[in-house]
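site-specific DNA-methyltransferase (adenine-specific) (Caulobacter vibrioides), 985 aa
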Amino acid sequence: MTPAQFVKKWSDSQLRERQASQEHFLDLCRMLEVPTPAEDDPLGERYCFERGAAKTGGGDGWADVWRKGCFGWEYKGKHKNLDAALRQLQAYALDLQNPPYLVVSDMERIIVHTNWTNTISRKIEFTLDDLHEPEKLAMLRQVFDGSDSLKPKISPQELTAKVAQRFGDLGRRLQERGHHPRDVAHFLNRVVFCMFAEDAKLLPEGLFTRLTRSMQMRPPAEAAPQFDALFAMMRAGGMFGADIVHWFNGGLFDEKPALPLERADIKLIHDTAAEHDWSDLDPSVFGNMFEEALKATRERAALGAHYTDREKILKIIDPVITWPLMAQWETALAEIRAALDARAAAEAERKAVLEAAAEAMRADPVKAKAGEAARRKTLTAIAKRSDAALGQAKDRLEAFLSRLAAFRVLDPACGSGNFLYVALHALKDIERRALVDAERLGLEVPTPRVGLACVRGIEIEEYAAELARVTLWIGDLQWHAKNNYRGFAEPILSSLDQIECRDALLNADGTEAQWPAVDVIVGNPPFLGSKRLRDGLGNDYVERLFSTYRGKVPAEADFVAYWIAKAWELVQAQQGRRAGLVTTNSVRGGASRKVLDPIADAGALMEAWADEPWALEGAAVRVSMFGFGDGFAERRLEGRKAEHLHSDFRGASTDVTKALRLKENASIAFMGDTKGGAFDVSGEIAREWLRLPLNPNGRPNSDVLKPWRNAMDMTRRSSDKWIIDFGWTMSEADAALFETPFRHVLLHVKPERDRNNREMYRLNWWKHVEPRQGLMKRVPALSRLLVTPEVSKHRLFIWLDARVLPDHKLQVVTLDDDCSFGVLHSRFHEVWALAAGSWHGSGNDPRYTISTTFETFPFPEGLTPNIAAVDYEGDPRAQAIAAAAAELNRLREAWLNPPDLVRIEPEVVPGYPDRVLPVSPEAGAELKKRTLTNLYNQRPAWLDMAHQRLDAAVAAAYGWPDGLTDDEILERLFALNQERAAAGR
C-alpha cells in the first residue's frame, strides 16, 4: 500500500473504532513495509493485538496492539479525545513491560509519546498529510523497531541539574551583595516555578520568556518591579498587560519584594527559561540539587541532612504504599467483576425471559397473555438483582476511591519533599489504574480526587520546608499534565499548611513533639552519629533530648533512632499502619539497634535492604532501608522473600542480636586510648626529646613518651608515630615538669580543648580524654597485647608490644597466649563477629564492637578468657590451637618483614621495642607493599592452609566437625551463648 492509498482510504473512512482499528494498523504495516503481528509472531507472544485481554476477563486488553520492547498502541474513534487512551497505556505500562513508545491514534492522527526510563518526555504527532513525507515515515518505522533514535538526549535529572547549577551561581551572587539567604531562596523558588508554569501551559504562552527578554532592553533597576507585578497577578489572578494570569496563591507568591538584579542576572534568567522545556523538571531531585547549589543557605548541612535518589525512595514507597494498596485494589476489582458478572447474568436471564415471551406470543397469544403477570414479576425480580449488582460494583469502587483519597503519608523530616513527591505520585498512579480498570469494565468513573491533602511533612528548616512545598506543587501539576487531565481549579496552588516548619522531636518547652495520625510514615531522617550530637545540636538541646526520650532511645544511639522510635510508637498506637525509613547502615548495630529490637521482636519488621550504596555526591555512607508495621504483601530481605528478619537486617534462623554478654568474657577486651587532641608527634621529634637531658623533676621524657599505633599502622605499615601521655592521675603542675612535651601540648592541644563542649575535657586539657583505665591497669602484667582494628575489611588479630600505646581505633584484648590468639583468629570467631558486629562507612566494612562481638562469644569449654593460660597450657586442645596460631603468626611476620629486606635496630634509649628498618631504599619500596591488607586481599595458598589448620584445631576444641557452614556455626555458638548466660557464666 502506498502512502497516497493509505491517506485516501482513511480520510474517507467512517468506520467506528472496533470496526476499523485492526485494519488501520495492518494497512499501516503494509504502507511502512514492516511485518504485521501474525507475520512476525504467529503465537502472539511478542507482538499481538489485544494484549492482556485474557488476563482482564475478556474484552479489551491492556493495549490494542503491543510489540515487546517497542510500543503499546491504543485506538479511539475518529475525533475522539486521545487523552483517555494515553492514560490507559500509562496505567498498564508495567504490564506491557514498559515499552519505549506509547502510541495513541484516532485513525486520522498518530501521536507518539516517548516512554524511556529516566529521560524527559517527548510528544511526536503525525497527521494523515504527514504520511506523504518520507522522513515522517522513517520516524514511524523507528517506533515499530523500538529504535532509540527518537529517545530524548537529556534526562530530567540533567535538566534539573542545569537549572540548579545556574540558579545556584545566581543565588551566591545575590548573597554576596548582602541579601539574606532565605530571601534569595524564596525569590529563586518563584522564578523557577514561573519557568515551569510557562512550559506547563499554566501561564500564557511564552509570558515569562517574553517578560525577561523585555527586561534586558530596559535598565536593570526596572526588573524587580516587573517581577513584583507578575508575582502580584499570580497571587490574586488578573490581567498582566494583554495576558490573563490565573490565580495561583499557595503562599509562594506572597508580598515579599523581588530582589534587585544586574544585567547579567537578567540574562541568565532569560537564557535559562528559553533554553529548555522546564515542565520536565524532576521534583524528586530538584530540592536536593537546589540545596547543593545554594550551599550558603544550608543550615541543615551540619546536621547531616542528605537526600535520597528516586530509585532508593521507590524501594521504600513500593512495599509500604504501592504494593499493599494495589493488593487492596485487586481484591476490590475482583469483587467489582463478580458483581458485574452477576449483573450480566441477570441481563442474560432477562433477555432469555423476553425472548421466551415473544416466542410464546407467536405460538399461542392467549396462553401467553395469561402468563404475563408472572412474567412481569420475574422481570421485576431480575431487574432488582441487576440493579443491586450494579450498585454493589459502584459502591465497591467508591469505597476504594474514597479510602485512597483519605490515605495520609507523613514524612517527619521531609527536607525538600522528595519522599512526599514520590509517595504522592504513587497514590495518584494507583488511583489512575483503578479508574482505567473501572472504565474498561463499563462503569462511570468520577474525576480523580487524590491530591496534595494526602501528604504531610515536618521540617525544622524554613527554607527546606518551602522547597518541599514547591516540589509538591510542581510534582502535582506535572502529574496532571503528563496524564492529560485538563483544567485546574483555582487557586492553582492549594495551601500546603500541612508541611509544618517545626522540630519533629521536641517542642519549644522541651516536651516531646507529637506527630499527626496517618496511614504511613516515610523518610530519611538526618544522618548524625551519636558522637556528633553535641557538636551538631548543642549541649542544651542534647540534654533535653536525652531527658525527654529517656527509656525510649539510648543516649548512645544515632540521631535517626529517635525517628524510628517515634514511628514505631505511632504504629503501636494504631495512628499509623506502616513505616518505611532510610538510615545509615550503622542502625543495624550498637545502641541504635535497640530501637529496632522491639519491632523485630513483635514480628513487625517486614522489609529490609541492609546495605545500599549512597549515590549522591558528598555522602560517604552506606544506607539501610527498612519497613515495619502491618499490611505488607510479604516479608522481604534484599528484595527476596524471607522467613525471618532480625533487627540486624539478617534473615538467618539464628538471631544473633539476642546473644547475651558473658561474665567470663568481662573486663578482658577494651577500646584503645582516645587522645582527644594533637598529642602525637613524629618518631623523629620523639627521638630528639628522648635524647634531651633530664627534666627539673629528675625524670626523663621517656616517662611520658610512648610509641603509638592506630588501625592503619596495623593493617598497613607503621607510621612511626609517638604520643605524649601524662596518664590519668598526673596533675598539671607535675606534667609541666616534663618541659618540652608539656610545651607541645600547651601549644597544640589546649587551644582546641578550650573550645570543647565537655567541661571535664576542658579542665583536664593535658590528659587524654579517654585513657582507658581498665586497659592500662592490665597492661603491666602482659608482654604483648592482642589487637584488632575496630573497622577493617578483614577481621585481623595482631600482636602488639605491650610498651606501645594502642589508639581507640584498635580494640585490645588483654590476653597474651597463643591459644587465645588462635581462637579469636579462627573462622568461628570471625563468623560470629560478622554476625554480631555492625558496619561502617561507604566501604561497608565490618565493625568490631566489644560488647556484642567479644563479650558474647563463647570460647571452647575450659579455654575461656577468665581462666589463666597457665591453667590450660597442658590441655592438648590448647596446645594444638597455640601451635597452629604461632605458625600462622610466624609465617605472616616472615612475609611482612623478610630477613633479607629488614634490619633490627634498638631504640635511641632503652625500654622500647626495637625498630624494624629497610636495608635499602629498594627494600623500603618493596616493604611498603607488604601490608596485612594486601596479604589478605591476595590470600596466597600458604596463608589459606595456615588458617585451615587453625580452624581445624579450634573445631576440635569445641568438639565439632570441621567444615560446618556459617549458619551451622552461628547456630551452635548461639546455643552455647544462651546456655552459659543462663548459667550465670
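Residues 534 and 543 are 9 Å apart (CA to CA). Residues 675-769 form one domain. ok done for today
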